[in-house]
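Session log. Operator J.P. requested a structure for one protein chain; no other inputs attached. Running the standard single-chain path with token output.
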Amino acid sequence: MVLLPSLQKPPSLGVGEPLSSSKPSDATSDSSEDKTASVYESHVEPLDKPDDAPDLGPITGPRHIFIIRHGERVDFTFGTWIPYCFDEAGEYMRKDLNMPKRVPSRSTGPQGFFKDCPLTNVGVLQATLTGEAMKEAGVEIHHVFCSPSLRCVQTCTGVLTGLGQVEELAIAIEPGLFEWLAWYPDSLPEWMSGKELLAAGHNVREDYKPFVRLEELTDCRESADQFYMRSFYLVQSVVKCTADVGSLVKAGGFSQLSGDNRDRRQSQGHRFLNCPLHMFTCMAMLRVLSHDELKKPEKDIYSPDTGFQTQFVRAVSHFEKSLTCGGNILLVGHAATLDVCSRQLVGGVPRTSQEMTRLIQKIPYCSLVSIKEAAEEGGWELSDLPFPPVTHSNNMRFDWKVLLT
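Structure written below.
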């Protein structure tokens, strides 16, 4: 850690030491196990493709899920930095070339960075180098989901910049990708809003409806097992949501249904809003079609009795060439994200809090893991990356006065 003049190094966090809300996050810690049943223990049902759904020709080849930890963060590099880098008026002044030239404006002011710090310039470089390596290896991303933490959003933007996809691929901010809640016993960070992130230059989706709502994380005690369950629920949902448009049609309740099946599908209708092909996209499709072909639905568009499903399928068929079905997924999160979002997906069992804590000590900044769709239907397996990792040494702070000795 590089310490600024007169800055105190924050107390080290040992294995098994709970993290108070007065300390930065992303540390290794333990928590008493809360055996309360998790809201994520009921997994998302498979969404079967209806017989009359259009075949939109999904992206061929096995799908890959890339999971990456954020890059180097300011607080872990410089220790207590906010009192020394902001004046009384809240104006930012960088004290080291590895600090960002500027920090984004946020409603919470400088103190908002205490639990939600930015990346260092090296952190941005780590992310960009990783994205460039992915591009050189022929990797293409089709869907991207990111933790709401600023350091993760900045990492995501850096990776997409390196990939050359930063403008074409909007980021879905997903609270379910946030790290273990046991490290925030008092309160969660006050994350930047979508509008603030957009103003800061990040291409985020304002219309995205997260799988795990922020309210589900607030005031929630979470055991390590529940953390794994939350993450498994999330990655399952992301995989199914981005699988194919046929699933999206049925998830929205637009296939012909009757009796109990209709009631069941109506109860699942709002899942449709989580999918990349969301309602606003569908309505945009309908608007460009001839008024002679399509008429504005007069009833609730979620109802399977309105005939809107017929218009929807017709609209999709007109736009089949422009839709992304299947394809690769990028998840941007924290050190533990690499394990908690892959462990059960590849057939493993959740680790204990002690096992997880020891593991994440071995996951440095911008570590990345690849999960490949296995030959058997519904299976996934860890796979080698087609590009090398980024490695560098620490660079201590230089004081020219040592030459006076």
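Operator note: The first helix runs from residue 74 to 78.
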